[in-house]
Each structure stands twice: as C-alpha cells, then as structure tokens.
Amino acid sequence: MNKPLTIVTPTYNRAEYLPRLYRSLVAQTCHDFQWLVVDDGSTDSTPALCERLCAEGLIDMRYIRKENHGKHTALNAGIAATNSALVFIVDSDDYLLPDAVRRTLDTWSLFGNDRLSGICFLRGISENVPLGQPFPRNEEIASYIDMRFNRGVSGDKAEVYRTDILKRFPFPEFEGERFLAEDAVWAQIGLLYEMVHINQIVYISNYLPGGLTRGDHSINVRSPNGSVESVRWFLSKQVRLKVRVPMAWRYIAYGLFAKRRLSGLIKASGAPMLVLTQIPFGLALYLFWTRKFADQLHSHRFVSVNDEAASHVFSGGKTHRPRATGDRL
To answer: Which residue ranges run through the membrane (predicted)?
Structure first.
C-alpha cells in the first residue's frame, strides 16, 4: 500500500549529515511516509550508509543511485519513482521537527483540493526562529508567485507538493549543465495553482560552507539554459512589473550566455514587447557579468563535478530563489 507522503532527499557526498536527517525521521510522531534518498553519484560512504539505514527497518526507506548530473536531475528521478499523493523535498543536510509529517497530512486533509498544488510551511534556523519572514496570515491561500514575489515574503520555505503536479512539470535538463534553480518549476506551477501557507516551522535548515548564496549569479551564468528557463516564468503579467523588468534583464543576459539569438529569446519569452524594450539593459548586464565572472567562466575548477563546493551546489545544497528586487547585480 502506498504511503500518502514521500520525503525525497537528493544527496551528493553528504554521508556525514544524512544520519541527523534519518534520526529526525525516525522521531516523527507519524510514520505514514516513505523516505526516498536519491544519490546523485556520491563518491563517499553514502551507498553503504543508506544500505545500513534501510536494513534497520525503523522507517519505510528506499535508496536510488544514479550518475552525477545535478540536484534537479536527482529530483526528477525521485519524483518519477514516487507513487504517493504528496512529495516533501528535504535536503540531506537539513532535518524535520518531530511533528512535521503529522502536520503535513493533517493540513492536506483539511485543505487539499484540485486547485491547490500543495502546502507551504516555514523553515527555521531553530525550532522557534523562522528563516526569513512569516506569511502575512496563517492558512492563507495564495500562489507561489503572489506570495513570494509580488508580496515579497522572504526566506526559503518548506514546500510540499502534489506528486501528480510535479510529474507534469519535471525540472528541465540541459546537457552539460548541473545547476537549475527550483524556481524553474515552482514559478511555472505558481502561475496555474495556489498553495495553503502555514505559519508553522516544520523544517530546520543548515547552511553549509560552499553552498549557494543569494546574488551568486556566477552559478547561473555557468548553467545558462537552465537559468533562462528559471526566469522566463517571471515575465508573465501575473508578476508585478517591478519584478518583471529586472527579470527581463536576466532573461536576456542568460540567453546570451547560452548563445541564443535575441529573436528566439523574444519569441519564446511570452512577453515580446517587454523583452524587446529591455534589450539594452540585458546586454549591459551580460557584458557586466562577462567581466565580473571571467575567471569562473574560464576556470576548469568551477565546472568540475567533483569540486567540493560545486558538488554541494549541484546536488546537495540549497537552491535559494532569486530575490524579486534589491539584490546586487
């Protein structure tokens, strides 16, 4: 019998941190879930560790191993292998509070319907200190686009999504690119569905050295096709103009890094007049980033899959959403 919730954990060389997440799952007040670990080609002791944890039988656990192609590809593999109604993505260096599963299932039982894509809880740096801002109102129904970008609620959150929707919107994969911001999917879903927002911390984040930080656009310019897809959805008229304009600059700049023609970018944007009018600014941003990130763009160290920082970014680290306004270029 399928469990109603699957906790999907993409991981790469995080054997040191997985046991803490495992212990937090064993400690859940409700065990009506499956933990699916998707190993993105780890070279440490992750395989042996996961085999041992599976053998303990304390929770329903599955382990999948694949070649290293990036966190987003690991998520695609995990979601494809999931048959539960809901998916909760939990990074390998984070953990859940004891009532996270129970709150998830109770909340969905109360609010779940066809027009909702899922639930958005708070993350915390501790049990009582939220990461970023809480939501304006508890139990508010709103889209990801509206809550996070139009209204500017800051900080990473703990999203639980319907599995059927995630299977309809897989993360785009591009040959040679190992980074894709989760916004490439979250924003696309947010244009069609709303979520229920719960002002309750259920997820504790641990930001490790070498992970992503806001405004680190060098990551994006090294995976430009994925970056184009990530920002394209923010050109929609559902997004306030104050956000759409700088996103158009990024869209153009990333497209140029991807060696796409401007005519093709304009046609694919869904907002041709906006993109057309912002070409001078997008070109200026492209030239600025070309100079700023020259070393990263031409250094083999920054594209090596086995580089410690890069591997954390690509497969096990945080994928912060881009800030709507105010971040440095």
So the answer is: 270-289
